[in-house]
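Customer escalation, tier 2.

The customer says the design service returned an amino acid string that "doesn't look like it belongs to this structure." They asked us to rerun it and document both sides in this ticket. The original structure tokens are below, unchanged.
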């Protein structure tokens, strides 16, 4: 399968502290859930210090973007905007004080969005597809980015047995309408990102179809986000628990990238960095870390008679020499 290169309306997106050319790169969004009942880590980053540390560790590991949420998408009781803001604003403020990384707040409440942007968030990641128009107005006034996600349910409510005649076409049409709505609220076209919402009010067959048909989402012309990490569609497809879904997550992320996704939202940062860099290198967007194989008379460590520990046998030594240019 060849890689699909979407015709982006605005390839270069300028965030508050960084710019990304989505025509030649894929951005890695790391997930930080400051909730006691998060889907993946069951509250491992609920403590403020743990959340900040996890965010900065993700940056050090190669994440371009940190997505900070205080309320899960899953159905449950409403949380006051004050309590949600108390969960995420201190994390945003602490990370922003130490890094120029892109920061998004995962929220659908305009009051939380305002507080998050005041603390240093560049992006509002709304998983409810602008269920509250005031959120769009707040984002437009701040000049921030907005992620528009496909979902069908009212926030934090159950949506039993979702059905689609053509899930890819219906999700694409929904996102097109929501983009038009966002534009009408004053959000600039170059500030919009779209997300088809893997697993959000979709069963596993729906989500697999979205993954295979991601090209239609990317063809809308806005940078598209694939949030596939460790989700239920991977568990159900492979019959594995959350702790064993990394390989499936990388496969799903790769398929979305090859079909035009330009942002992937992931838990496993080192593995995701490697996945992105391999694909970027294959596309000619990134140079390999070093070149050694079949670049000389022999390939280490196959040279007979060379002493152990020589550059020919010691791959790390040759790697250092190649990098240092000596």
């Amino acid at each position: 399968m060849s890689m699909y290169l979407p015709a982006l309306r605005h390839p270069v997106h300028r965030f508050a502290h960084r710019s990304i050319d989505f025509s030649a790169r894929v951005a890695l969004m790391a997930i930080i859930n400051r909730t006691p009942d998060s889907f993946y880590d069951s509250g491992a980053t609920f403590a403020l210090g743990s959340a900040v540390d996890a965010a900065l560790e993700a940056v050090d590991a190669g994440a371009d973007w940190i997505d900070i949420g205080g309320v899960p998408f899953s159905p449950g009781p409403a949380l006051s905007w004050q309590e949600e803001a108390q969960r995420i604003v201190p994390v945003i403020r602490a990370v922003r004080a130490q890094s120029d990384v892109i920061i998004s707040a995962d929220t659908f409440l305009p009051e939380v969005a305002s507080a998050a942007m005041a603390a240093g968030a560049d992006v509002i990641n709304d998983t409810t597809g602008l269920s509250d128009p005031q959120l769009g107005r707040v984002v437009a006034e701040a000049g921030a980015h907005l992620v528009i996600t496909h979902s069908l349910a009212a926030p934090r409510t159950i949506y039993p047995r979702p059905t689609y005649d053509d899930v890819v076409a219906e999700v694409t049409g929904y996102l097109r309408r929501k983009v038009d709505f966002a534009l009408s609220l004053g959000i600039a076209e170059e500030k919009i990102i779209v997300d088809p919402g893997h697993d959000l009010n979709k069963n596993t067959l729906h989500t697999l179809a979205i993954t295979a048909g991601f090209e239609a989402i990317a063809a809308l012309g806005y940078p598209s986000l694939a949030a596939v990490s460790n989700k239920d569609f991977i568990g159900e497809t492979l019959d594995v628990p959350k702790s064993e879904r990394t390989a499936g997550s990388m496969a799903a992320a790769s398929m979305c990238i090859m079909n035009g996704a330009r942002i992937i939202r992931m838990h496993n940062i080192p593995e995701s960095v490697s996945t992105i860099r391999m694909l970027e290198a294959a596309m000619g967007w990134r140079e390999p870390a070093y070149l050694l194989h079949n670049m000389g008379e022999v390939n280490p460590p196959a040279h007979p008679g060379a002493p152990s520990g020589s550059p020919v046998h010691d791959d790390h030594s040759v790697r250092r020499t190649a990098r240092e240019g000596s």
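Tier 2 assessment: The sequence is consistent with the input. Confidence is low (pLDDT under 50) at residues 306-326. The chain has eleven helices and ten strands. Sent an explanation to the customer and offered a walkthrough call.
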